[in-house]
Structure formats: C-alpha cells, structure tokens
Amino acid sequence: MNIPKLIASVSRGRISQSRKFFLNCIPPLLAIFGFFLLCGIVVYLRGQEALEFYRIILLSGFASFDDFGYVLFNATPLVFTGLAVAIGYRSGLFNIGCEGQLYVAAFAAAWVGMHLNLPAFLLVPLCIGSAMIAGAGWGAVPGFLKARYGAHEVINTIMMNFIAFALMNYLVTSVYQEPGQMIPQTPQIHETARIPRLAPFVPVLPENNPLSFFVPVLPDSNPLNLSFLIACGCVVLCSIFLTYTRWGYELRLVGNAQDVASYGGINPRAVTVWVMALSGAIAGLAGVAEVMGYRYRFLDSFSSGWGFTGIAVALLGRNNPFGILAAAILFGLLNKVALDIDILLGIPRGLFFAGQGMLIIWLVGIEGISKK
Fold this sequence. Notes:
Blueprint lengths: L2 H43 L4 H13 L2 H26 L7 H18 L4 H30 L3 H23 L51 H18 L1 H11 L1 H6 L4 H28 L10 H11 L4 H24 L4 H23 L1
C-alpha cells in the first residue's frame, strides 16, 4: 500500500468537502449582508442614524439572555416547518401545506389534552403523538394524490390549507368554544399535558457570587420552553436520517434521479406518500410548541404564517438541518427586531418584513449565479 498517495487522496477529499461547504455558505451570507445593508440605506434615507439601527438590532437580540430567549422562542416553530419543507424538497416534493398541517396537529394535541386527564409521563407523549399523526395524515393526502393520480402537490397542499383553516375555525367557534369567551379559543388543556418552560431549569446565583456574571438569567416571564430542545433534537435526528439511513438514501435518490431509483428497486410512489406524511408530522410539531408550550389551548389563527416562512427558512438553510436551525434563529431575531424598531425608531414593521422578502429574492438570485 502506498501510504503517501493514500494520505494525499484523503487530503484532497477533505479539501473538496471544505470547498463545497464554503461555496454553499456564500449565497446565504451574501443575501444576509445585502439585506442588512439595504435596511441601513433605507434608515439613512429616512433621516435616521443607521448606526443606531444596527445597535438596536444587537441589543434587541443579545443584550441579555432574556432577549435571546425570545429569539429562540420565535425560532422554535420555524425550525419544525423549515425541516418539514426540506424533507419534502430533498425528495423532489414542494410541501406548501405546512400551515394547514400544523393547525390540524395543534388542534389534535389540544383535544387530547382537554379530554384526557392522565399523568404527565403518559399525557405529554400522547398529545405529541396525536399531533404528529394528525399532521402526517393531513400531509399524506396530497402525497397519495400525487403518487396515485399525478396531481401536483403544490396545488393539493394549498387547497388542504384552506380546508384546514375552515375546519379548525368551525370546530373552535361552533363546537369547542370556551364558555363565556368571545375569543375563538378552546378551554385550557390539563396541566399534565403542558410542556414546561426553561426558566425554572436555569440556575439563579446571588449577585455577590463571582460566577453570577457567567450564568445566564432567564426570567419566569420568558416563554422559551422545552419545545426548543425538541426542535434541536429533531434537527440532529433529521440529519442522521437523511445521511446515514436507508430511507434517507431512498428519499434523496428519488429526488435526484427517479428513473435510477426505480431501476434500483425503489418505489417512487411509496416514497412520495411516506415523505409527505413525515413532512406533515414534523410540521405538526410546530403546533405542539404553540398549544403545549405557550398558550395551553388552541387559539384560532394563532400562526403568523410559520408554514410559509418555513419555506424561506429551508431555502436560506440550503435544506440542511443545521443550516435550517441557524436560519430559523436569524428569522426569530428579525421578528423580534421588527417590533423593537417599530417602537424605538418608528420604522413600520411592514417595511422590515418587506425587506425579509427581498432577502429571499436575493438568495434565489445569488444561488442561481453561484451555480453558473
């Protein structure tokens, strides 16, 4: 065995992998840089200090662990929806139905949490499992229509969104409306069905303790809960699933070369159905985070477009689970900053959200140029 040649070949492989990773990072970084640069120019044209705008961005998200906790809280549902979109996209499917899937899943979790009064170690997994099953069932329908009749999943998932919105609205306002309330919401779920917040698990040291400077303080009012840790675990599991399992290989092969997959004995129709079901189950976890970790009830129209924002998160994260986590945290920061600059600088939130749309347009454009 020629050891020097073996070492050289391994080194070239590592260099090529590093180069590939670097090239994949260029489009998102350029798009993010262009977004913040455009925001600074708009602020300057409005007659305001651009440096003050950037200072507020840093203070809004990173002034304290409490602020960063709100960023992570905003990012939690986007991690789930971003992963759901990426799972479908890696198999050649475009799941735009995450919004409807998370609504159905949230209601399923709330229904189980309202009607069953069991110990927490039983009720919490039951609520999460019922939500994932509901989301998977809602996602499997367009997958079946795609596999059986060739109906395009984009049209089907969009239509399923409208059905989910209308059905959940009817159930909340006409069947499970909380008595004596004008707000369209269900009664609260049992306490044993709730996911705890992270604040009680964060140690608080006395001010005179020299280590208190290094220990983050998370107030009880901060809504960050264990759903974020579930999201991080889901990122790791999705990465392992896509990279090291037979199902992940089948998924990627069907997405890259369906004819080759068929020749190799893989059934693309079956893959289409279970991939859409898996995507719906992951999207349903966003509804779990809302019902079990924050409001403790189902509130009609609770989502601020997480299912659609998840498309942007997956795109910015290049459909990589860890990239999606980073992109979700960025969008969580932008959502928090939008409110702060509206209050402190008088910049309308809508203008800032329009800039986020420009961020995605730039990303698509830069990615196309980089491929050429």
